[in-house]
Design goal:
By secondary structure, the chain is mainly α. It has helices spanning 16-37, 55-58, 75-88; strands spanning 2-3, 45-47, 92-94. A 3-stranded parallel β-sheet has the order 1-2-3, sandwiched between helices. α1 links the parallel β1 (2-3) and β2 (45-47).
């Protein structure tokens, strides 16, 4: 289970170095997924959107939109998706920007 960032899917001035390192996580995950598949080991990659954590001295706060249309997600919401990926072994999951969607934390049937 590797955690990357939604910044790897967009061009955002000012976060190039961060996005580049997270892009490396994306590639390492894809390669490991292929290399370890024969051993029955699943490698999942999660790309969260903005999450209210202590990262960056807690600059992202719940209820405060950093940009129009952007919603800061609760850490528990992101953790729910992590659990889903651990249970399913899905390859990659991008948490959608915008309001939280509780259904995405459920294991698909």
């Amino acid at each position: 289970m590797n955690v990357s960032s939604g910044t790897t899917r967009r061009v955002l001035p000012g976060v190039g170095a961060y996005a580049a390192t997270k892009s490396a996580v994306n590639m390492i995950s894809a390669v490991l997924r292929e290399e370890l598949a024969g051993d029955g080991i699943a490698v999942s990659l999660l790309l969260p959107s903005i999450t209210a954590t202590e990262f960056g001295d807690g600059i992202f706060q719940l209820g405060v939109s950093p940009r129009p249309g952007m919603v800061v997600h609760r850490p528990e919401y992101v953790a729910g998706v992590v659990l889903r990926l651990l249970r399913t072994g899905e390859d990659t999951f991008d948490i959608p920007r915008g309001p939280e969607q509780p259904d995405i934390t459920r294991v698909p049937e």
